Amino acid sequence: MRAKLWISFNVCGIENEEVTGCGGVLRDIEGVARALFLGPIVANDTNSTEVGVVFIALDLFLSMGWKINSSLIVEICSKMVYNWCLNKDMRPWLLQTTFSIIERKIEQVGSVVFSMADQKRNEMASTLAIAGINRGDMFKAC
Q: What are the residue boundaries of the RNase H type-1 domain, all occurrences included (predicted)?
């Protein structure tokens, strides 16, 4: 399947009383949701949760088999994780392995652009992440 000119994946990771959840929604150029995920995620803090969410979003996108004409835009809630995605030197040592896998997934996608999520556009991903805290397993829909 050939995706439109550009698509975006809004992602969010949430930590609440040592329980973490994640959510993400893939939208096409018209803003129509084409895929989503939510569920629990194993992480030590909010930032590592958000890194894990980027990993899951790329993995889900690749599993769909889409080919894109332009870039996949990954919109991130955390300014810290956004900076880590852009600057390898800022990444914490404990997350180096995860970022190496993320970089391999980016190569498979072809072109990925990271951006800070607009709070209004990321509302659905945040809601999915909150719901994900209470799930026993990961839910994905494409």
A: 15-129
